[in-house]
Write a structure and sequence with these properties.
The complex is a heterodimer. By secondary structure, chain A is mainly alpha-helical. Helix content of chain A is 79%, strand content 0%. Chain A has one domain. In chain A, helix 3 packs across helix 6, helix 4 packs antiparallel against helix 7 and helix 5 runs antiparallel to helix 6. Chain B is mainly alpha-helical. Classes of the chains: A mainly alpha, B mainly alpha.
């Protein structure tokens, strides 16, 4: 485990992320591009949903990332609170806007799909509502980072907010099971026995999910590198002021 | 080339257009901020090296 903490060193992180970032960015662009083209142009209509099934290739990967981005922020926040590694706090900060965007896409595509399928853009269904609250937590998290001048205090307070918001990240994932009510169906992909999704949809969906994950990774790496540089600018400016 | 989307063409095209616009906006924002901060750091380091 000792080697894992080496990456908490900003110099080491910048070095490793320097070659990892272009690789993940290219892989993300290829898999998202191919996955969406495959899903949009080459999948048949579903016998129940008709052609609206094509929205699944945006909705499921973005919802998957909306929840897991928060989980990643939670892990990074706990590392910050326990071990005080600055890179982990900055990685959590970088993931905030990306997770918020993914949640927004999941909410938008869900509403657009819901209109023809459910006959309404929105219902106060447990899963939809918990997703909306998760989005508000993302906005609050980003706002809190911006509102506090001292970076360590900001990291402390946002980490606590992240711990509290994790309840809604879990609820967003399992709301349909916990309450067993509302319009939203259960998991689209499941290892449990029962109704299986056809491989005609599963292939592009898995590719889109992998692509969205790689895109998230690339954007978090890029964002964390930017935050490290921004932190260095602040440190240099403070040193310059101190030296007169 | 365009698949027949039937009665739901508006919804599907709206979902793809809105999502790709938001996603593209995010990528552009991350890229532009990265460029700006990198340039600011380079400028500051050059100035500090000159004065020291």
């Amino acid at each position: 485990m000792a080697s894992l903490w080496e990456y908490a060193n900003p110099v080491k992180f910048m070095k490793v992320s320097g070659w990892l970032l272009p690789l993940t960015a290219v892989l993300a662009a290829v898999s998202v591009g191919v996955g969406l083209i495959w899903g949009f142009f080459f999948t048949p209509d579903d016998f129940r949903q008709g052609s609206t099934v094509k929205i699944i290739f945006l909705h499921v990967p973005s919802a998957f990332l909306a929840i897991n981005a928060w989980v990643m922020m939670l892990v990074a926040s706990v590392i910050w609170l326990v071990r005080r590694h600055h890179v982990s706090a900055l990685a959590a900060k970088a993931a905030g806007p990306i997770g918020a965007t993914m949640t927004l896409i999941a909410l938008m595509t869900g509403a657009i799909w819901g209109q023809p399928m459910w006959g309404t853009w929105w219902v106060w269904d447990p899963r939809l509502t918990s997703f909306l609250i998760l989005f508000l937590f993302y906005i609050g998290y980003i706002a809190l980072w911006s509102a506090i001048e001292d970076p360590d205090t900001a990291a402390d307070l946002t980490s606590v907010l992240c711990l509290v918001g994790s309840v809604f990240a879990v609820l967003s994932r399992y709301a349909a099971i916990f309450w067993n009510q509302g319009l939203h169906q259960g998991a689209s992909l499941s290892v449990a026995p029962g109704e299986r999704m056809n491989w005609a949809y599963k292939g592009p969906l898995y590719l889109c999910m992998a692509g969205f994950f790689l895109l998230f990774l690339a954007l978090v790496l890029a964002g964390t590198r930017t935050e490290i540089r921004a932190r260095r600018i602040k440190a240099l400016e403070m040193r310059e002021r101190a030296n007169g | 080339m365009m698949p027949d989307l039937g009665a739901y063409a508006t919804e599907i095209l709206l979902a793809y257009a809105a999502s790709l616009t938001v996603l593209g906006g995010l990528v552009l924002w991350v890229w532009a901020r990265s460029r700006r901060v990198r340039r600011d750091l380079r400028t500051l380091e050059t100035r500090l090296n000159r004065t020291s």
